[in-house]
Amino acid sequence: MTEVKETSLLAEGLRSYPKALGALNEFARSITSTIREVAIQELGSLSSAMHLDLKPDEVGDYVRPNRLAIPNPKDPILGARIDRIGKSGWGIYYYLWWAKGVTNLSVSVWLRDSGTAESVFSVVRDLSSTTRVELYAGHEVCISQILPPDDAEQQLTVIMRELIKEFSTLWVKASGLDRFLGIVENRG
C-alpha cells in the first residue's frame, strides 16, 4: 500500500471506526437474534423429528470469526447453534454465511465422526426431494438456500423457517439422528 493510501485509510479509520464497529455489532446482533428466535420456535418439531431432547436454553449464538483479530476469515457466519460436540459428538447449526460472495442460509448437523456424517449424508440425500443436501468438510450435513440481499429483510425469517421445516421432514424420513448415533435420549 502506498504511503498516501495508508495515510488516507488511517485518517478515515480514526473518524469512522467507532461508528462502523457499532454498525457491525448491531448487524450481527440482529441476525443472530432473528435466527435464534426462529430456531427456538421450530425446536419442538425438530426435536421430535430427530428423536432428541432439544431444549430452548441450549440454543446459543454462533459467530465466526468471533473476534476482529482474525485476518481474512474464511466463510464468515452469523447464527445460532446447539452445541453437544463435547458431550455427545454432534451439534445443530442455523446460520447465515458468506461463501464466495454469496449469502446463504443453512441448517445443519455437524458430527465429530466423519464415518457417521457420511452415513447420515447418504441416507438424507437419498430421502431428499431436492438437491440442497450437502456434506461439508466430511462432518457437516446441511441444507442451504441463497438469501438475496435485496430482499433479505423480508425473507430471512421465512427462508430460515422453511429450511428448518425441510430439515425436520428429512429427519422424520430418516427415523431420527439417534439411529445413527446409537443413543436413546431421555425425552421427558
How are the elements arranged and paired?
Layout: H1 3-41, H2 43-50, E1 59-64, E2 77-84, H3 85-88, E3 90-99, E4 102-111, H4 114-127, E5 133-136, E6 140-146, H5 152-173, H6 178-181
Antiparallel strand pairs: 1-2, 2-3, 3-4, 4-6, 5-6
Structure description:
It is a single chain. The chain is an alpha+beta fold. The chain has one domain (3-181). The chain is 48% helix and 24% strand. It is built from six helices and six strands. The protein has helices at 3-41, 43-50, 85-88, 114-127, 152-173, 178-181, and strands spanning 59-64, 77-84, 90-99, 102-111, 133-136, 140-146. A six-stranded antiparallel sheet has the order 1-2-3-4-6-5. A hairpin with a 2-residue loop joins β3 and β4. α1 packs across α5 and α2 runs parallel beside α5 (152-173). The radius of gyration is 19 Å and the shape is elongated.
For this structure, the quaternary state is single chain
- Enumerate how many helices there are, as a single number: 6
The total number of structural domains is 1
State the separation between the terminal residues, measured CA to CA.
Answer: 61 Å
Helix content: 40-55%
Rg calc: 19 Å
What are the low-pLDDT stretches, counting only 5+ consecutive residues below 50? 184-188
Structural class, by secondary structure, is: alpha+beta
Mean pLDDT figure: 89
| Biggest β-sheet: strands ordered side by side in the sheet | 1-2-3-4-6-5
**Shape label:** elongated
Instruction: Tell me the major beta sheet.
Output: 6 strands, antiparallel
Strand content: 15-25%
- Give the SSE order as H and E letters: HHEEHEEHEEHH
Number of beta-strand segments: 6
